[in-house]
Every structure is written in C-alpha cells, then in structure tokens.
Amino acid sequence: MAKSYLIQAPWPDFILDGTLHSLEHLCEYHISAEDSSGNTREILVTFSDHCFTSKDPIDSLHPEASLYRESARKPGYFCPRRYEQSLNLVQHIEATKTGSVWNASGQNFAAIPTVTANGTPALYAILFGVRRLKGAPPYHLHLDVVSAYICDDIAAFATFGSVGFKRLVTLTMEGKHPPKNHSKHRRRPK
Predict the structure, then answer these.
(1) Could you say which of 6, 74, 78, 116 is the most buried, measured as most Cβ atoms within 10 Å of its Cβ?
(2) pTM above 0.85?
(3) Buried b vs exposed e over 1-33: b needs ≥16 C-beta within 10 Å?
C-alpha cells in the first residue's frame, strides 16, 4: 500500500551500481514545535530532491548510471556526498526547533556544525522556507527544505542576522517575516 501524503509524493528509491539508496528519510512528515508564546504548532515538513545535482555525474563517461529521472533538476544526478549528509536531516530539523536559524535571501538558513569526510570542521547548510498552511488541519505551517549540503565556504552566503525558531514560528503564524539586518557588523555563521 502506498504511503499517503498531503503535499509531496514519496521520492522513489535510487539504485546505483546495484546498491539501493532509500529516500524514505525524505518523505513528508510532521513535527510539533512551540511558538514564542508557548503554543504548540503542527508543521508539515517536505524535502526537495537536493540529493541530486544538475551537473557532475559520478561517471562522466556513463552519466545515465547516476541519472535520477524523477529529479526536478533536468538532468538530476545522484550525489553520494549530499545523500550521506541527508540521512541526518530529520535529527537536524528536530534540533533546530529549540535554536536559531539564519535569515537569508528570501528563505531561512540553518547552519549546523558537522565534520566532512576528511575530518575537517564544516557547516551543513539547510535552506528552507516556511509558510502558513491553510485548509489542511491539523497543520499550521509548511516547512519545505529546499536544499541541504556541506558549506565549503560559509562566507559565500549572504545572511541577514538570526532569529529564534520559536520566534520564526510566531512571525509566520502572524503573516510576518523576521527583519533583515543589513549592518556590516551583523553576526554571521562561522
């Protein structure tokens, strides 16, 4: 029996070189989070196909081997690095509920400390949008993870201050956005 969904159909699994890569962890799900007034809000979480990239197939001589036909990117190629990091997305989102997120161009940006494959410190960027979700009880908000990847150069991101996730939930419920801080002395991810 197929899993039911409200906004996003489940991502089909991907087979590369005979190995099945399950995308079940990117299925739509929901979280409960408090707003800044202590009200519990139900949030529907969805994911884009950010485990795939529009360039750089694993094997440039046989690009069809890593081609994911259901990708919104045309073409969309499987990226092992993004896939491995995505396996912890649900835990990162859960941890974000009690922390702060970075305000970025048109979206909210969460930077989570992590370690790259070679052991060097890095940041895992989770770019997401959040909006009110009307007519879909019991859900109040929709959090859509647009992209998630290791940031090799965090300074390349333009961020405009941070906001507590609880405050972000409150502002979104009120139809507002957090203010953007354009000061050259503003705090930035590091």
Answers:
(1) 78
(2) yes
(3) eeeeeeebeebeebeeeeeeeebebbbbeebeb
